[in-house]
Amino acid sequence: MKGLYCKLSEGEEVKFFIQETSVPSAIGNHQVKVQVKSCALSPVDVKLCEDLKLQREHIPVGREIAGVVLQVGPNVTFFQPDDEVVGILPLDAEVSGLCDVILIDEYNLVQKPEKVSWFEAAGAIKDGLRAYTALHTLSRMAVGHTLLVLDGASPFGLIAIQLAHYHGVKVLATAVSQEDQKLLEQLRPSVGVPEPLVAKVIGVWDSKVDLVDSCLEETGGLGVDIVIDNRVLLYEEEPEVKMHLPHKHDIISILGVGGHWVTAEDNLQLDPPDSRNLFLKAASVSFLNEEVWDASRVRQGRYIHIMKDVVEKLSTGTFRPLVENPVPLYEATVSMEMVQRRQLRKRAVVKL
Predict the structure, then answer these.
(1) Is 319 in contact with 131 (CB distance < 8 Å)?
(2) Which of 86, 169, 173, 337 could form a disulfide with 121 if both were Cys (CB 3.0 to 4.6 A apart)?
């Protein structure tokens, strides 16, 4: 059977390719054999694999999967054959999620509700985990908080907005294009009062719009309680990039007293004046890396609980993920290249 893999080529460019692969015939005590029905494609963090010493000649691609259980190991207690499941392959997985059949530990899977489609389940599971990590685990959101989601129309941003609104949080979001702004302004909950999910959409694509002024105006000058970024500017960069990414000083200026900044910027550097400003506000910075759930067995129960809650909210319509139209396996390489270059935000491959 075929799977999608990648390797670094000259100039540190990531090269994707489909190759024949095989799954071990012996199934482990706590392993589940799954027939994959859908696999979502998200950017590959090659640097993270290098940092964790997971380098190999070919890195498997496609970790967010949904499928049907074919066989279970002798000590598996959560599943049985014919169960529909969704989950995330660990970083050290040896096979691609686009293979027809995979082996995966039972603790990385949860039951998929019947009413949730294959590609929606695969497309939302990791963004849901990321949103829970950012809002519940790192920033401890609560009713009455004000949240700013940068690049709110991204797949992760939309799930974070929906989760925050569900818990009574006032949401502000930035849009990097006119199309994104229209999408965010039209967001409504699937049930209940048809009020906008986003209290204010800030169109940073428009050079006349100032992010800091807009946030302070919306909060009466108090600042927001939580900021979730999608990378920030650390130094001077090209003007067209500046329009879409805020500077780290802007984020600090936006934060209110006791605020939380959750950042995806793994190379963040804070100068002494930045630290002083955070100190004066008693604000904090947390780094968003949802991969840490697999790093400690102590947290495995909570990890499973989060994934169960994500699929439950998919089933009730609380979460409505943004996933491009699904593609067949033969288009996976081209789609993955576009996802890696950020030309597409997310794609799902559906097995016919």
Answers:
(1) no
(2) 86
* Of residues 293, 316, 250, 294, the one with CA closest to residue 116: 316
Residue 200, beta-bridge partner list = 172
Residue type, 272: P
Query: What is the distance between the alpha carbons of residues 191 and 318, in angstroms, rounded to a whole number?
Result: 8
289-316 pLDDT per residue, tens: 998 888 777 788 899 999 999 999 999 9
pLDDT exceeds 90 at position 245: no
Q: For residues 209 and 245, what is the distance between their CA atoms, to the nearest angstrom?
A: 13
Please state, in angstroms and rounded to a whole number, the distance separating the CA atoms of residues 76 and 72. 6
* pLDDT number for residue 55: 67
The CA-based diameter of the chain, rounded to the nearest angstrom, is: 63
CA distances from 64 to 126, 127, 133, 151, 310 (A): 7, 10, 17, 22, 13
**Residue tagged 């039951």 (tokens):** 111
CA distance 104 to 334: 26
Residues 6+ positions from 203 with CB-CB distance below 8 Å: 174, 175, 178, 181, 209
pLDDT at residue 192, as a whole number? 62
270 contact partners, CB below 8 Å, separation of at least 6 = 248, 278, 285
The count of other CB atoms within 10 Å of the CB of residue 75 is 10
CA distance 54 to 94: 10
Distance CA 30, CA 75 (A): 5
When the pLDDT of each residue in the chain is averaged and rounded to a whole number, the result is: 90
Positive or negative torsion for Cα 118, 138, 247, 45: negative
Residue 10 in this model has a pLDDT that exceeds 70: no
Q: How much is the average pLDDT of 23-35?
A: 89
Closest Cα to residue 66, out of 92, 89, 93, 91?
89
86 token code pair: 């969704």
